[in-house]
Specification:
82 residues; alpha+beta; two-stranded antiparallel ribbon; 2 strands
Length: 82
């Protein structure tokens, strides 16, 4: 309960954070966005190349599914023939 209250206070008081801390949060969110978009583009490229050979190959097939964090990365690869 104390952690939830502290998290809410930190979010509400974001405008008074020091500039360095705001910049660090911005950089972390930027790098995570680049990582997610890069992973999605990699998945698309692998699927497009594999579909030329009649194979449905997905890297992290449950990545965009509505599931828990760890379940999104299982199985790592899913492959089937058309």
């Amino acid at each position: 309960m104390i952690g939830i209250i502290l998290a809410i206070l930190c979010l509400v008081l974001f405008p008074v954070w020091p500039y360095e801390l705001k910049y660090a949060v911005w950089l972390i969110s930027l790098y995570l966005l680049i990582f997610i978009v890069g992973l999605l583009l990699l998945r698309l490229a692998i699927y497009a190349i594999a579909s030329l050979f009649g194979v449905s190959l997905w890297l992290f097939p449950n990545l965009l599914a509505d599931s828990s964090f760890f379940a999104s990365f299982k199985p790592i690869v899913e492959c089937s023939r058309w």
